[in-house]
Automatic annotation (TrEMBL):
Name this polypeptide is given: NAD(P)-dependent alcohol dehydrogenase
UniProt entry tagged with the keyword DNA repair: no
Domain (Enoyl reductase (ER)): residue spans on this chain: 8-332
Keyword presence, Oxidoreductase: yes
InterPro entries listed in its UniProt record: ADH-like_C (IPR013149), ADH-like_N (IPR013154), ADH_Zn_CS (IPR002328), CAD-like (IPR047109), D-isomer_DH_CS1 (IPR029752), ER (IPR020843), GroES-like_sf (IPR011032), NAD(P)-bd_dom_sf (IPR036291)
Keywords per UniProt: Metal-binding, Oxidoreductase, Zinc
Pfam families: ADH_N (PF08240), ADH_zinc_N (PF00107)
Native organism: Hyunsoonleella aestuarii
Amino acid sequence: MKVNGYAATEQKAKLMPYSYDLGEIGSEEVDIKVSYCGICHSDLSMINNDWGMTQYPIVPGHEIIGEVIAIGNTVKNLSVGDKVGLGWMSASCMSCDQCMDGEHHLCSKSEATIVGRNGGFADKVRGHWSWAIPLPEGIDMSKAGPLLCGGITVFNPIILAGVKPTDTVGVIGIGGLGHMAVKFLKHWGCKVIAFSSNPSKKRSILNMGASQVIDSTSIEELESINGKLNFILNTTNVSLDWNSYLTALAPKGKFHTVGAVLEPMEIPAFSLIMGEKSVGGSPIGSPALTKTMLDFCVRHNIYPDVEEFPMEKVNEAIEHLENGKARFRIVLKNK
């Protein structure tokens, strides 16, 4: 099957029209006609080879919403015509301890949608049936793409940390990931404290459901919430004054990072020990949890704030993101 997409042929290159053939479909694979695809910062990292694992040419895109147009002969639970989403992962081995335990996203033999293969900045994409997540009835397909990566990335920690509706929680960095975390936690029932260094975002952050916005550059404002937060989610990828946030945690509080901070995180031992606090991290979530998240979103009408660009203007959309102008996620639409 022929695919028409947009690819970078070298590090930091502009995307150019690119066609390739998918070959014969595998017995457990599905082909998806791409309707929408979000742009994630991870796409930029892969285009720029920030993580040292990009293979060129690369067609980015891993927040895919579309329709199943072909299936292998042993595909389960999907039929041609089904509306599905495909996120960061496109396959897992289905036989290791992690897969058998329902933690497919922790499979050591997993296949990422844009690592060594081509993704959703195209008219079609292929993946294993288990990661083609059926979309719930009534979902807004034009806004659902970012939920398949950014959304599940911030939803999974809520489950892992056992966050309760009565908790007071914090979210660091109210961008593409953070703004979805604020919405999830608000509808979870929590009191949400947002940490942001951009005062121009304050009104929109409060409208998302935050109870309070803390200026993360102000020592005084950070100190004002010492010992008050049961859970803090970090969505930024830069080094911070980690001890200030650990101090903001209540006893037994949990600090969780999904931001890919490249430098080692300096965590003072006594800040953890004296309050029985903990630090953790996570990637995306399992297919089953992703489906649960989508159901939760439809139930509470939770969607990312998106700006839509036509697929053929992908370079303009990427530049918009690189310049920090996205409010708060970008979605590409196929004709």
